[in-house]
Amino acid sequence: MGIDPGLTRCGVGVVEGRPGAPGTMIAVGVIRTDPKAPLADRLLALDDGLRAFLEDHQPEAVAVERVFSQHNVASVIGTAQASGIALLAGARLGLPTATYTPSEAKAAICGNGAADKQQVTTMITRILRLKEAPKPADAADALAIAVCHLWRGGMKARLAAAAGNGGPR
């Protein structure tokens, strides 16, 4: 399961497959919270939405887009809080968790770590053989994170195990 964390819109996507194969989309969605609601209520709503998605689809792993520095500090803080909720949701169920930077996901999906959102959406639509592009972009980004983990997660785990730290968490 891939998660594009956000406090207002959190993209969630579940894919099935194996490294080297296109994969199949199982589910995609966006969990929304009210920007006018108190922060604690928004975080709880996000947690409830992620928990429901995890229960409904029972993924084997959770991959979350890693928070990156932006100029808008308030936006980074909200995204970081949402990211923490996403990682906690997977860990609570004992699922392996991993994080990927936006450029890692873009490189995996588009072959270019500097690809724009439209390129990611176009490529994830092709890779998963979807009839139409997932909308909004948060949904496409979540699928991209899921596919990135599908394709790269096994290698990361093997490298981490070889280094002696047990794999991505």
Protein model, in words:
The chain is an alpha/beta fold and 169 residues long. The protein has a single domain (2-163), classed as 2-Layer Sandwich (Nucleotidyltransferase, domain 5), CATH 3.30.420.10. It is 51% helix and 17% strand. It has helices at residues 39-57, 73-92, 102-110, 117-127, 137-163; strands at 2-4, 9-16, 24-32, 62-65, 97-100. A 5-stranded mixed sheet has the order 3-2-1-4-5. Helix 3 packs across helix 5 (137-163) and helix 4 (117-127) crosses helix 5 (137-163). It is globular, with a radius of gyration of 15 Å.
Structure summary:
The chain is of the alpha/beta class and 169 residues long.
**Share in helix:** 40-55%
Shape: globular
What is the CATH architecture annotation? 2-Layer Sandwich
Counted beta strands:
5
Say which CATH homologous superfamily is assigned. Ribonuclease H-like superfamily/Ribonuclease H
CATH topology: Nucleotidyltransferase, domain 5
Report the top-level CATH class. Answer: Alpha Beta
- The rounded Rg comes to 15 Å
Low-confidence stretches: none
The averaged pLDDT comes out at: 90
Oligomer: single chain
Query: Topology as H/E string?
Result: EEEHEHEHHH
Number of domains as seen in the coordinates: 1
What's the main sheet like? 5 strands, mixed
Order of adjacent strands in the largest pleated sheet: 3-2-1-4-5
Distance between the termini: 14 Å
Count of DSSP helices?
5
Structural class: alpha/beta
Catalytic activity: Endonucleolytic cleavage at a junction such as a reciprocal single-stranded crossover between two homologous DNA duplexes (Holliday junction)
Family: Belongs to the RuvC family.
EC number: 3.1.21.10
InterPro entries: RNaseH-like_sf, RNaseH_sf, X-over_junc_endoDNase_Mg_BS, X-over_junc_endoDNase_RuvC
